[in-house]
Write a structure and sequence with these properties.
Layout: H1 2-21, H2 27-45, H3 47-73, H4 78-91, H5 100-121, E1 130-131, E2 134-135, H6 140-148, H7 165-174, H8 176-181, H9 183-207, H10 212-215, H11 217-229, H12 234-257, H13 259-263
Antiparallel strand pairs: 1-2
Helix pairs in contact: 1-2, 1-5, 2-12, 3-4, 3-12, 5-12, 6-7, 6-9, 9-11, 9-12
């Protein structure tokens, strides 16, 4: 089933690529455009779920003062706190888990795209395919390794799957001259990675606004995802970056539409908790 899904995604990507090249666009540039079109299609298909997620996040921000009151009022009764919190969510039609659903749906596509691009890099037609300077088949690690000409003791190029962050960065520090003399090989993949880290931070920053408990995530997630992205092909990073950018635009639009609702002062409680 997984192989069939992978073949289906590859067929769709190739179909989009062929349609783009048929209007006279070069094959290398067309691969990047095909990935962008695929991203647009995925985002369009997930729009209903994403819309619910965004609205739920806005309502969660509005409920935060009430949640703080409940936490103070029932700080010594965890069961009652959970019961009242779930009742508050239900009353305001908020599903705390809704934010995970679009991500869970995107994850298989993300993994499939990684597999498709990895297989494509093994074909002659996809050798050194670039889009706006980004090597779509190479990762930050592999492009830096190419710039450094990393080889084993026998003088054979180290396979991509054996490259590690520590290995490449240690080699970079000891061969800075070689690394920067070949900067065009890796810099565009690295810039795309930095852009994705910023977009992730900004998206988390918007999501955690007014929620101090989530503020730490706005720093942890970009660092964690940046570490993961070091080994991802440029094509996957392109998909991730475009998807994140569209997510931010969608999030800002939803925030503007619900701004009037957010400005309403919530009723924190009917009976103020007694202070001891």
């Amino acid at each position: 089933m997984w192989a069939q899904a992978k073949a289906l995604l590859l067929g769709l990507l190739q179909m989009i690529h062929n349609a783009i090249t048929s209007i006279g666009i070069g094959t290398n540039f067309a691969w990047g455009l095909a990935i962008i079109v695929l991203t647009l299609l995925v985002r369009a298909a997930m729009h209903p779920l994403t819309q619910k997620q965004m609205v739920s996040m806005q309502r969660m921000q509005k409920l935060q003062p009430m949640l703080n009151v409940l936490q103070e009022k029932y700080k010594d009764d965890k069961d009652k706190l959970n019961q009242e919190t779930m009742a508050l969510y239900k009353e305001n039609k908020v599903n705390p888990a809704s934010g995970c659903l679009p991500l869970l749906i995107q994850l298989p596509i993300f993994i499939l795209l990684y597999g498709v691009l990895y297989d494509l890099t093994k074909t002659e037609a996809f050798t050194n395919v670039t889009f706006l300077g980004v090597n779509l088949g190479g990762s930050v690690l592999t492009t830096m390794a190419d710039a450094l000409n990393l080889v084993d003791e026998a003088g054979v190029r180290i396979p991509d799957e054996q490259l590690g962050v520590v290995m490449v960065f240690l080699s970079s520090f000891t061969n800075l001259g070689l690394l920067f003399s070949n900067i065009g090989i890796w810099i565009f993949n690295f810039i795309l990675l930095v852009v994705i880290a910023f977009l992730t931070w900004y998206q988390q920053h918007i999501s955690s606004a007014g929620n101090p408990q989530m503020a730490m995530m706005s720093w942890f997630m970009p660092l964690f995802l940046t570490f993961i992205c070091f080994g991802l092909p440029g094509g996957v990073l392109l998909y991730w970056g475009i998807s994140s950018l569209m997510g931010i635009v969608h999030q800002v639009r939803v925030a503007k539409k619900t701004s009037a609702e957010m400005k309403e002062k919530p009723t924190l409680y009917k009976d103020k908790p007694k202070t001891k």
